[in-house]
Amino acid sequence: MELTTLWFFIVGVLLIGYFVLDGFDFGVGMSLPFLGKDNTDRRLLINTIGPVWDLNETWLIVAGASLFAAFPEWYATMFSGFYLALLLILVALILRGVSFEYRHQGKGEKWTRWYDQFIFWGSLLPPLLWGVAFANLAQGLPIRPMDGGGWLFEGTLLTLLNPYGLLGGITVTLIVFTHGLVFISLKTMGEMRENARKLASKVGIAAIVAGAAFLIWTILQHLQSETLWAIIACSAIAAVALIGGWLANFAGREGWAFTANAAAIVFALLAIFMALYPNLMHSSIDPAYSMSIEGAASSQKTLELMTWVALIVMPLVLAYQAWTYWIFRKRLSRDAIPAEAH
């Protein structure tokens, strides 16, 4: 396998890891208005992700850095074309992170309510906008090569808000919401565990319907693609995993449900990456204007150096993250929340 293709899939793996791990973080944040009957409940929900949420977000940082180093033209074109959408995501993530740290610093219910709202919207907007962005990548964007090199995005934020893109955003939002609710039922006990499981069953149905519509639409858009078989296979596995996760949650098997939901996210994103391959961005203006993997990649020496760094660093990162999850594996309950906690 050529290094350009290898790094296309490495970037894909990093982004998939981000959506699987930070995905349930987003789902927990979105659950605050639905499961947080009082401040103790909301504090319990936040504590389920307290030790890991910032660690999960490092996957996005590493993915962005790898994208910049391996495919600078892809990075530049996406960040210029998706500028406003990415800015909104960044603002939402900042507000969300600040809220986790400052929510308990104030005095009074009004202070905590404001930060609870920031956590909710900071958890809702990123998966919605990420879903819109990735759906548009799979569908194709109005890009063309420039005379001086690089590619130009000839669209606006409204260009991204097309029916297929919006369906992608809704689908990702519903799936990560379900993912987060299952994580809550996996990490808590008592009434919170049962309420999260029941809500996951309801939201899971909507996620299955939206996911099926999105994956079918994706397949229909790529009937002439040379990777059609891979798109169909990944879509089918994602659909089976999503349904299996719903059944496992309904049966009260949170561990299996969480694993199945994670698999659904993995294979749904793989379907999108297969829809992209062998390009990085499809041009809706003219297929000849599409950005190929080879055309947007860094030099061979750069990719070789990055490969050696990845071989050394990635096992250490994975080991540290696995250790962190193991240390904080115990279930939580309302009784563990101090009465004076905000």
Automatic annotation (TrEMBL):
One Pfam family hit: Cyt_bd_oxida_II
Keyword Membrane assigned to the entry: answer is: yes
**Stated family:** Belongs to the cytochrome ubiquinol oxidase subunit 2 family.
**Would you tell me the protein name for this molecule?**
Cytochrome d ubiquinol oxidase subunit II
Q: Which superkingdom?
A: Bacteria
The primary site where this protein sits is: membrane
Name its cellular compartments. Answer: Cell membrane
Q: What is the lineage of its organism?
A: Bacteria, Bacillati, Actinomycetota, Actinomycetes, Micrococcales
Q: Membrane spanning segments where?
A: 6-32, 74-98, 118-141, 161-182, 203-222, 228-248, 255-277, 305-328
Q: Does the keyword Transport apply?
A: yes
Per UniProt, what is the membrane topology?
Multi-pass membrane protein
Output the Gene Ontology terms for molecular function.
electron transfer activity; metal ion binding; oxidoreductase activity, acting on diphenols and related substances as donors, oxygen as acceptor
InterPro entries per record: Cyt-d_oxidase_su2
Q: Which UniProt keywords apply?
A: Cell membrane, Electron transport, Heme, Iron, Membrane, Metal-binding, Transmembrane, Transmembrane helix, Transport
UniProt gene name: cydB
Q: Which GO terms describe its biological process?
A: aerobic electron transport chain
